Amino acid sequence: GFHEDDLVNILLVCVFVAIISARLYFVLFQLDYYIQNPIEIPMIWHGGIAIHGGLIGAFAMGTYYCYRKNWHPFQLGDVVAPSIILAQGIGRWGNFMNHEAHGGPVSRSFFVTTLKMNGSL
């Protein structure tokens, strides 16, 4: 098992690193703009953050922390995996509310041929 203080420490460090790496990941995909406007790089309210960068940063920091504490990273992964799924779900709600990251219209013929069930049209 893990000591509660260790889990709080790793949580705080990983959240901090995840926010920074999420922003840097976002900035890298808009690099031309941010080279022209470097003052906006730390302004997360101008553009945002990307969950992929946050996951990469938190994973790297968590792996490093496990190495320093002589823990197996998979044990820590078992502890944090449910929170990652929850965070992803909350993020999707945000995408829904912002009208982003959703699919386009689907024709009726798609549903008929793909989702045909007994008794359906």
Please outline the major beta sheet.
Answer: none
Q: Give the number of domains.
A: 1
Total count of helical runs of at least 4 residues: 5
Cα-to-Cα separation, first versus last residue: 54 Å
- How big is the Rg? 20 Å
Give the mean pLDDT: 85
Shape descriptor: flat
The succession of helices and strands, N to C, reads HHHHH
Number of strands: 0
Can you give the helix content as a percent range? 55-70%
β-sheet strand percentage: under 5%
- Low-pLDDT stretches: none
Query: From the helix content, strand content and strand pairing, which structural class follows?
Result: mainly alpha
Question: How would you portray this structure in words?
Answer:
The chain has 121 residues and is mainly alpha-helical. It has one domain (4-114). It is built from five helices and no strands. The chain has helices spanning 4-28, 31-36, 51-69, 73-97, 108-114. Helix 3 packs antiparallel against helix 4 (73-97). The termini are far apart. 12% of the residues are buried.
